[in-house]
């Protein structure tokens, strides 16, 4: 693998090496049993002293990620996930092939191999609540005119009719925008990735909320960014802390999920939205506003998006239309202006020559005519599930367990007492068919976290209830001998 | 923009600066009228002497890319393409936002805005020859079972049934492979991009044919690779030259289009395929075998792919199923083994969480049952067009104009006498509604080229004939006063 060392950083070199290797081991990119390079070899490769490498290896050993034996060297420990498949060919040379994938937590946590009866790890909506049959019926109306269109390459920006529908949708939500300022992407993930590959390079400072969406961390670290995570409170990202840090570490980009934040569920207040925009203006940096959830509010409408107040093209706004309609269609849009937009379109062309027209034309009639009505009933259905989730937690969770009750989105962020070993809980839960997202993957650098994220919208209510109860019981077993503390909501 | 200077390079610093700026200006990323940074400012930014920057600016001026005026500074010249749109907002700060897009020739040359009556610039197939109506009819058979599948996220690797169809298709073509060694991508472009983002970083040496596919140059330069282009002859890439260069510049990756190469049409001989694979094995580097055209042969079947002989996972093979079936569906596959495959899948997850299931499920029945039969008739149709193209050139091209007669693919690579100013020809042709691809964009670093690429499959035979005749006449006008030379095929 490629290890980027920053010699001017306040982070010690041995910790930088530790972090890089830990990220790769925890992502499964360095499989169990892999021999790490010898201390002598790695120190000469990185031009650091052997003591530095030796300290990094000791650190990894203390994290139980590697096992070192005198005279034999260090090996990735058994606890990590074995990923590489065996073949009959001799592929051993491949292990020396350097790559630029520092982290791959999406791959590690979300691939199809993960089938759970009580599927709480994925922030998606139960297929039965989605209008997929309707959308498939819409494909029957694809006319011969469409057929000719589809035989040609689409435009890099995406289908103009669809972008017009998106423009109307966003305008109704306070974002005054025209189709020309919109780019169709293959899901919000691609939107984040396009911004990163266009504007973020090695050493650029990217601020994110702590915690945040794990897929965004994957993206920005893959660009070699210096990711700095900003603590949150009940009003969202701590802009005061961000402001202070910007003094010494000027931002290239600030990534935020201001509305029903993933994973915490917290919404950034209007006042802080304004402060954030002011900050971007004074530093001439980009804000990436990722907005998967603003239409999924269960009490009152959330505040207007940051993009709605953006007069000078500082905000790149990313809106998924996959999650609430048809995840399998991978449709999202990115709103940006001026040369920022032009450069994103240029990057899109290099990436994949534009998103498929078939999915765009298929979703068009639904998004144009029936989305709003669908969202009304979807909100109702998911609010019911949220109620079930919160009630079940209230009733069965051990008293030491606390959570934040969200007013929108698909997740509950649960804080466990520090004596709970989350990887161990994961294994026990897995045996019962329960999956959840360990909070640690929502931090850059594998920070310790006592949290887990439960997504409550992918299973039906009965399954949700019984699965959550089982999980609470497992937690109860673990905590059986611990002291009872007072319960309060917490981030 | 971000300028990467390599101080150990044999290329002089002022030429590195020239190349970076020229690439951006020629891509339209620095629009007409943009003021370049002052010599003092850029020299301090890059930590080079003012003389170096001043030489770079003089070089750009001699290329007619910028205009410098004493006391006023240097501006991007009018001849370059104006791209950035105007708005009512003040977006001027955006011009100082550094990006990592060194080049964007795909964006510059292939976006929809380019509508020509005689469309010869795009290597695509006339929509009427594609089975799009059939494929749309297939969407009507998408069952409710499929509908449930589509409401969920797909897998990162792509639909298993589709990968099984791809595996059969490739096995029939001598590539013994199973579905697990295949990754579905959004077009071949994304396949190239995934390999680059996973395995290529700043300074890594990437070898390519000279000339090559412009979209691949965009991708590898965007990763900061040191791109080295290897001359070709009638047997394809000059492996002898490549071998010598590898001594001093060991390869990280070799990108090749061995069969009916784009843009030249030349096919790499079997002997050289073996040499290339041997070379990769001795340097432990990857070969990226891009294969858009092997099914489009018009005389005899081409030699087996390099991948067919790959025993140890050195070759990443990329096969588009968009071009010959449904470009609007953006479906291709990447074949790789071992940890190379695992890492590509991890990169795919970060990029877009997997390609849309709708397009995969829609194309499945056609690709499974009717592709081979479709290819038979497609070959016949396109062979007819090739004949028309070659006959028209033979009859009407001025005698100083030469070309290589391809035995497959969609392009004719035409060499013009050096006195033809190709940008000027482009403007004149554009007025007549004729588009072609200027050869210069098929070289890294904007190398001078006397070639143009004509794609003969996107228009019907009559349009092809009359457009090519017009183009020949334009060339005749230009060459009216030049000496007549003997005609022979040439690369």
From TrEMBL, chains A, B:
Domain of life: Bacteria
UniProt-recorded name of the protein: GntR family transcriptional regulator
